[in-house]
Amino acid sequence: MATEAAEIAQALAEQIHSGAIRSGEMIPSERDLCERFAVGRTVVREAITMLEGMKLIEQRKGFRPRVVTPTLAQAMAGAAEAARFFFRGSEGNAHLEQARFFLEMSLVRYAAQFATQAQLGKMLAAIEACERAIGSYPQFREADLRFHRTIAEVPGNPIFVALHDAFVDRLMRRREAPVDVATHNRRSNDEHRAIVTALVARDEQEAVRVLTVHLSRNYATYMRQALTGTEALIGTEALVGTEPRAAVSNSEG
């Protein structure tokens, strides 16, 4: 049912994006959609819920759903909501971790060259917030998210920030707390400091090296769940190289 609903939602989303159904117009009735796609009302209603999650429509009691124009952040959040059906389980998480890895690697390379003093100061403020929350996983996670979001803000491109908010934020929030919270948080924040130290020095290679160690532990955790034996080892090494391997193998995840 979820697959059928997703396909219907995608078909309607394409009509909205193409202008076939314009902003302010109502989408077809449930009966029309049932006949068009040869499905029941339950599937159609699930598809409509997906469209609402994508911020493409709004629903008001007593009225048919109406098309709205989402902001970039809303559109990205809607895409993440629609994609959640395809990123369930360890393999889906591994795909998200890898996508995050490549996104943040590009961002930190840029930050090593162009991060302003104000942006570096914002990163340091997030690090200090992390420091105050070493013993609390929820509070540390909030400050951790602010640190990584600031890196996404450096280029001044709203797409990178929207991608972070839609996918990286979602990914980090659904992780379970590590066994040893304080040790895990201490190591993560030490790596945050090392990243900023490299950025201040405009040392792109060192910033990339530390971020690789920082992110690869989480990626490797999901790779080990999704793959087995040699496949997992090859997949992890292909992503992180050989230098951070010890950090990966000694991680709590």
What percent of residues adopt helix (DSSP H or I)?
over 70%
CATH hierarchy, class of the largest domain: Mainly Alpha
Radius of gyration: 21 Å
Strand content: under 5%
- What coarse outline follows from CA principal-axis ratios? elongated
Considering the protein shown, what is the CATH homologous superfamily of the largest domain?
Answer: GntR ligand-binding domain-like
Provide the CATH topology of the largest domain: Four Helix Bundle (Hemerythrin (Met), subunit A)
Number of domains: 2
For the record, the CATH architecture of the largest domain stands as Up-down Bundle
* Mean of residue pLDDT values: 82
H-E string: HHHEEHHHHHHHHH
For the largest beta sheet, what order do the strands appear in spatially? Answer: 1-2
Outline the structure in words.
Strand 1 and strand 2 form a beta hairpin. 32% of the residues are buried. The protein has 253 residues and is an all-alpha fold. It is elongated and about 60 Å long. Strands 1-2 form a two-stranded antiparallel ribbon. The longest helix is centred in the middle third of the chain and has 26 residues, at 89-114. The protein has twelve helices and two strands; from the N terminus they run αααββααααααααα.
